From TrEMBL:
Gene3D superfamilies: Immunoglobulins (2.60.40.10). This is Titin-like. It comes from Branchiostoma belcheri (Amphioxus). The keyword NAD does not apply. GO terms for cellular component: cytoplasm. InterPro entries: Ig-like_dom, Ig-like_dom_sf, Ig-like_fold, Ig_I-set, Ig_sub, Ig_sub2, Obscurin/Obscurin-like_Reg. It is found in: Cytoplasm. Keywords: Cytoplasm, Disulfide bond, Phosphoprotein. Residues 16-101, 110-190, 199-279, 288-368, 377-457, 466-546 form the Ig-like domain. The gene is LOC109471915.
Amino acid sequence: MFVRLKWYPYPCILVPVTFILGLEDQYAIEGDEEASFMCAISDPEAEVTWYRESEALSEGEKYSFVAEGARRKLLIRDIKTADQTKYSCATNADKTEANLFVEAFVDFFPGLEDQYAVEQDAQAQFSCKATHPNAEVTWYRSDQKIENSEKYEILVDGFDHTLIIKDIQIKDESSYSCATKHRKTTARLFVEALIDFCPGLEDQFAVEKDPQAQFSCKLNQPNVETTWYREDKKLENSDKYQIIVKGYDHHLIIKDIRQEDDTSYSCATQHRKTTAKLIVGELVDFCPGLEDQYAVEQDAQAQFSCKMTQPDAEATWYRSDEKIENSEKYEIIADGYDHTLIIKDIHLRDETSYSCASKHRKTTAKLFVEALIDFCPGLEDQFAVEKDPLAKFSCKLNQANVETTWYREDEKLENSEKYQIIVKGYDHHLIIKDIRQEDDTSYSCATKHRKTTAKLIVGELVDFAPGLEDQYAIENDAQATFSCKMTQPDAEATWYRSDEKIEASDRYEIIADGYDHTLIIKNIQIKDETSYSCESRHRKTTAKLFVEGLLDILGPEDVYAVEKDTQAQFMCQMTKPAADAVWYKGDEKIEESDKYRIIVFGFLHTLTINDIQLEDEATYSVQSKHRKKPANLFVEGTDNAPGIYGHICC
């Protein structure tokens, strides 16, 4: 080590120069403009020498020396990491040294850049490079430090630094920073509201030479800009393609379908893309298609039928928009080209549209179901006799004033001299006039839905000649008898009490003998009074049985008198008060006179005979409507007198 000594022209003594303030370690960062060392010496006029390690330094662009009184400075410019070493300052007698520590400058190149994400994206990522590998950095969201978590992932790979933000939401839009000790880089995350498809495209089916096929989709925001693609080729409006936007709805119409149009088509927004395929195949069409069908409530079934242009083609049936499967209600039949849907147990609710769909086409028709117009009751067989003035068929419908048609066998009937058709509300009648043998056949009444048929049976008249006549009986009579004659021998007859059929029994005896028919009613009671009928196939005769309560007589008894007695008297009692009675002498009716006095008092009846003579001896009787009771008057002086005198008293 050489020390420069100051030369004096005069003899002198060398004074040692020492440091009153030594150097101290200095810290700088790569790229700093300068770093400086400072010390102070004991002689302000003394010179010093600066060293970098053992190399003496000279002033220039890199280094400068400054002397300010006792202070000495070393200025090091344009700091590099290579400047990190030991620096010293020496006097003639002393030396001080210190280290310059140069920290490598950690910068970003490139720094962060703004990022763009869409709501619901899985993640967004910020990336930057540091100028030194594995440099320590800190990430910030605005001014808040970010740590590794479920939301944030921080990655370091050599020079590369990455922040991953997961599960993007609108609230994640903010500024994000990456900082070293020396530098900070900042960028922003922009989060857009998601523009999505709801629904997206669906595969479409077309047939070569179809006039067009259409793709449609909806977006969750109106009037959004979209781009359509055929595979990867962008589509524009042209003779082949028509692009339509109506609010939320976006459509692509492909015209004049050809086999080469069979490919994928996409609609894309800035966030999402939906893709579907146009499948162009051989046409499976309907020829003929479905036709409207008409049924009536309670019909067993209704049937739709159609043909396809390809055998055994797959078909799907629909009720309105609801798919139909085989069940107790529906039967689906496919037989080669023929496709059939059978709807069973028809009700009014079955009225709607029904469709059969192939891969390419759909045919639709409607089932019309009418409320049932039915007969209740329908026609019944009628019986008539040739030359009868008329015969009549009658029936009722469940709705009023319904249009009906009458038939003789299969011949439609109209109003005429022979036939009269009558409609009164629910009631329908056919009157056939001037009955002849050729009228013996079937007759029908038909509505739109139902038909009722019965037969007119025209036969030889079985009539009554004479018919029944009213009969009169008295309570407790043994029997009453009805008799009539029929115009045909051994004809079948039915007897009725009012409307109740009579069978042979202990109570009733029925006798048929050739033309004669007899009903014997036994043990007559008041309750037997009613109408009785005898009915043949064609006619009916009716008469009434009148039953009177029994009017009976108690007494009179025999009376004995003496000739020239003032009077004799017969007495009896009736079962009803004030009943009519007639007195007889023998067969001669007795009238009230001086000779005879007749008295009625309640139940008691009295005949008084005045001025008794021998010729008054006779049989006397009293007669009610139902009974006659005799008694004898014996007058003394005749052989019959028993010698007893008296009168009847009862």
